[in-house]
Design brief:
This protein is an alpha+beta fold and about 60 residues long. The protein has one domain (about 1-60). Helices cover about 20% and strands about 25% of the residues. Strands 1-2-3-4 form a four-stranded antiparallel beta sheet. Strand 3 and strand 4 (about 55-60) form a beta hairpin. The N and C termini lie far apart (about 30 Å). About 10% of the residues are buried.
Length: about 60
């Protein structure tokens, strides 16, 4: 039941370029992973990948970190 509330809220935050942990505005800070993806690191240390195709962020997977 919690997923019915939490997942849509996290998706909304990411589409509005906000961190899902603290709600701060995300900004690309020049970091790139080994595949060339642009990564944003929030002040709360959560990492997000900018997806060019959708124009929004997604959480970094454990294998990407």
């Amino acid at each position: 039941m919690n997923d019915n509330i939490i997942l849509p809220l996290q998706k909304w935050l990411l589409t509005h370029e906000k961190c899902i942990g603290c709600g701060r505005k995300l900004a690309l800070n020049g970091h790139k992973d080994n595949k060339g993806n642009r990564i944003a690191v929030c002040e709360c240390k959560k990492m997000f990948v900018w997806v060019e195709r959708t124009g929004s962020y997604r959480k970094v997977l454990n294998i990407e970190a």
